[in-house]
Amino acid sequence: MTLPSPLPAVLAHNEFQEQAEALKVATSLSQMVYIAVQMGLFLARWLLKDELSKRAHKPVVWSRCATCGTRLHSKGWESRQMQTLVGEID
Predict the structure, then answer these.
(1) b/e per residue 47-66 (b: at least 16 CB within 10 A)
(2) Number of domain units in the chain
(3) Could you tell me the residue range of the domain that residue 15 belongs to?
(4) What are phi and psi of 85, to 5 degrees?
(5) I want to staple 62 with a disulfide (CB 3.0 to 4.6 A). Which of 38, 56, 72, 80 is the partner?
(6) pLDDT one-digit tens code per residue, 38-82
(7) Can you give the pTM of this predicted structure?
C-alpha cells in the first residue's frame, strides 16, 4: 500500500496537531498510549475517507436486474455517515 500524496496536509490538520502537542506534554504512559491511539484512529478515518472517495468517482459497469433484465444504474451521489470501528466515516 502506498500512502496518498496529501498525507502532509493530513498531518498538518488542526485535530492531528493538537494530539501531537498533547503527546509531548503527557505525563504518564497511559496518557501517551491513549493519545497515540487517537492519532492512529484519526489517520485511519482519513485513509478510509480518501479511499472511499476515490472509489466513488470511478466509473462502474452496472449489471442487469435478475428479474426484468434492465440495466441497473446509480440514483446519484448521496452523502452518508457510517459508524465504524475507527469512528464515524462521512
Answers:
(1) beeeeeeeeeeeeeeeeeee
(2) 1
(3) 7-64+77-89
(4) -60, -30
(5) 72
(6) 999 999 998 898 888 888 888 888 899 999 999 888 777 778 888
(7) 0.70
Q: Where are the alpha helices (DSSP H) in the chain?
A: 7-11, 14-25, 29-56
CA distance 88 to 90: 7
Q: How many angstroms separate the CA atoms of 40 and 45, rounded? A: 9
Q: Is residue 71 part of a domain?
A: no
Residue 17 lies in a domain: yes
For residue 70, being part of any structural domain is answered with no
Cα separation, 58 vs 36, whole angstroms: 34
Classified as helix, coil or strand, 51 is helix
Question: Whose CA is closest to 8, among 38, 49, 37, 43?
Answer: 43
On whether residue 47 sits in a domain, the answer given is: yes
- Residues, the chain: 90
What's the DSSP call for residue 84? E
